[in-house]
Specification:
4-stranded antiparallel β-sheet, 2 helices, disordered N terminus, mainly beta
């Protein structure tokens, strides 16, 4: 069954799945949502943000973009790092292939060697292009790293999942890793702490049982099982955003 056929069935599926989904016009390869904003990039590196029901192109070219309490950041094909300041991209020091702005006014990400870095809140808030940033190297190797108010999660090259304990805005490095059962190819932490991910088969999962006393949670629950071959997921304000392997954009109300 094609995606459009699935989407025609969504009103019927919503009652049993708990999701109410619609396809959003456009095509993206990566999307990130936070603090009520939506940003994404397409396969050509064009950057877009959602204004109401329509996409507005943002000048510049990126392969990965992120939005959160720390602002809007991104990295380009050369792994250069940029922050959106006053409508223009300001390059800052460092090299990352993936970056996340979902923490409490701090940013984090990984480089081309899967080395993990974060930038504590004082440096993030005062960032400018004229000085070297004090990126903090975190022990370990990950291909994707994402933070929220409840902590930071990541996946490595083998799709193993890890949670980082004791991450604070300053210092941002945390104290130790805990391996979490399961396999995911990418993972995203919502600003308020919800955790969603996609596995190599394109299936979407949510981490349940997360509390302040148990930030690792208890179980993975598959969601959006009627939408096949998802490649990217992001969550904010009760809305789950999915990108399929064909670049289709799907918005689901939880």
């Amino acid at each position: 069954m094609m995606l459009w056929e699935f989407l025609l069935l969504l009103p019927l599926l919503a009652g049993s799945s708990g999701l109410d989904c619609i396809e959003i016009p456009g095509s993206l390869k990566q999307i990130d949502v936070g603090i009520g904003q939506v940003f994404g990039v397409n396969s050509a590196g064009n950057i877009y943000t959602l204004h109401g029901n329509s996409w507005a192109q943002v000048p510049g070219s990126l392969k990965h973009v992120t939005v959160g309490p720390a602002g809007v950041w991104g990295v380009n094909n050369n792994n250069n790092i940029y922050k959106l300041v006053g409508g223009s991209w300001q390059q800052v020091t460092g090299l990352l292939k993936q970056i996340d702005a979902g923490g409490d006014m701090f940013v984090a990400g990984v480089n081309m060697h899967d080395d993990i870095y974060c930038l504590s809140r004082p440096a993030t808030v005062s960032v400018n292009s004229n000085s070297a940033l004090p990126w903090v190297n975190i022990a370990g190797k990950l291909k994707y790293y994402s933070c929220g108010m409840g902590g930071c999660w990541g996946v490595n090259s083998a799709d193993d999942i890890y949670f980082r304990f004791d991450v604070t805005p300053d210092p941002c490095a945390g104290s130790r890793w805990e391996h979490v059962p399961g396999k995911l190819s990418m993972i995203e932490v919502g600003t308020e702490g919800s955790v969603y991910g996609v596995n190599s088969a394109g299936q979407v999962y949510r981490r349940d049982g997360i509390t302040k006393s148990n930030p690792v949670g208890t179980t993975w629950t598959q969601v959006a099982s009627f939408i096949c071959n998802c490649k990217h997921v992001s969550y904010d304000l009760g809305l789950l955003w999915l990108i399929t392997d064909q670049g289709k954009i799907v918005k689901c109300r939880i």
